[in-house]
Specification:
With 330 residues, this protein is α+β, with helices and mostly antiparallel strands. 47% of the residues lie in helices and 17% in strands. Helix 3 runs antiparallel to helix 12 and helix 9 packs parallel to helix 12. The radius of gyration is 21 Å and the shape is globular.
């Protein structure tokens, strides 16, 4: 079992599967358009390891298996197990959860989005903040980064996105977004078989909207960290089923556990993240790229990469673009 910590991948992801899995996006560039979009999401079946296990052991193991958003994974698991047992969940480290959300969000904003828009990433600024994020200077360092390097870089990124998205100016002027409210009850119904409809996360209306929401998320998380705001957590339980939810940098993270009535061991376990919904097929990418034409193959590749970042997968991804007309003349 690979217990090596996995950081969020830049869009130029290495080959091969990581411990988190891998995402491959393929398309054909023809006639100035992207067509035949294909998505291949590979996820290791980690939850099968939990069957028959003590639920407390599962909670302890999860952060090592999902070291990306490890605090959020643990918190969601704690909520689910406590709900299944009819108990109060253990206390969580709220500051650590906000810091983790900021880490994943700032990685995207400072390291991944700029190259996707033809800009230079702010590596030095991110490394400096990362070294201070868990110390006494964390709040001050975060506020300085958001007001300084990130604000400057975000202005450049949004100007590029406004040029490409007709809704850009309205989105840029929108007030800060609130975090999406947690709702574990529909998931409890779904996994108990009481509902045939699996809840789905909201998709961004455009690439510019996704970037603006990510920027607002960083601002909201920084404010929450400074104010000592409790981190969003929720749970629902019934009949030895428990569902726990919390926020991750990419949206709502949901865990569900079903426990044996007599032994208290895990019968079934589920983890559902926004990536699982956004990249179950190519519909989300197609919606973001609908109607667009591109002057060249590289411009199409750049737009496809931006669309993937807008849906924000929590694992490495690779973009593969075929151009039949180029192959014909080769």
């Amino acid at each position: 079992m690979n217990l090596t910590p996995v950081l969020p991948a830049q869009h130029a992801a290495p080959t091969g599967l990581s411990s988190a899995g891998e995402l491959r996006i393929a398309a054909v560039y023809a006639g100035g358009r992207l067509c035949d979009l294909r998505v291949d999401l590979q996820r290791p079946l980690v939850v099968s390891l939990f069957h028959g296990q003590n639920p407390e052991a599962v909670v302890k193991t999860l952060p090592y298996l999902y070291s990306l958003c490890a605090h959020a994974q643990r918190a969601a698991a704690q909520q689910a197990v406590a709900a299944a047992l009819g108990q109060s969940p253990l206390a969580v480290d709220h500051a650590a959860l906000w810091t983790e959300l900021l880490h994943e969000t700032l990685w995207r904003l400072l390291l991944d989005w700029p190259p996707a828009l033809g800009l230079v990433p702010a590596k030095a600024a991110f490394v400096t903040w990362r070294a201070l994020r868990q110390g006494p200077e964390a709040v001050a360092a975060t506020q300085a980064l958001l007001a300084g390097e990130l604000a400057e870089l975000a202005e450049k990124c949004q100007k590029i996105l406004v040029d490409r998205e007709p809704t850009g100016p309205a989105i840029a002027a929108a007030p800060p977004a609130r975090f999406v409210p947690l709702a574990p009850a529909p998931w409890l119904d779904y996994w108990q078989g009481l509902s045939g409809q699996r809840p789905q996360p909201l998709r961004p209306l455009s690439i510019a909207a996704a970037y603006a929401a990510l920027l607002q998320q960083a601002q909201a998380a920084a404010a929450a960290l400074a104010a000592g705001t409790p981190y969003p957590l929720a749970a629902a339980g019934q009949g030895r089923w428990g569902v726990g939810q919390t926020l991750s940098a990419r949206g709502i993270l949901t865990h569900a556990v079903h426990l044996d009535h007599e032994r208290g061991r895990v019968i079934d376990y589920h983890i559902w993240a926004p990536t699982d919904a956004h990249f179950a097929d190519a519909a989300g990418l197609a919606q973001l790229l609908a109607g667009q034409r591109f002057a060249c193959r590289e411009a199409a590749r750049q737009a496809l990469t931006q669309a993937v970042l807008a849906l924000d997968p929590c694992l490495p991804f690779r973009v593969e673009l075929d151009a039949p007309e180029e192959a014909h003349h080769a």
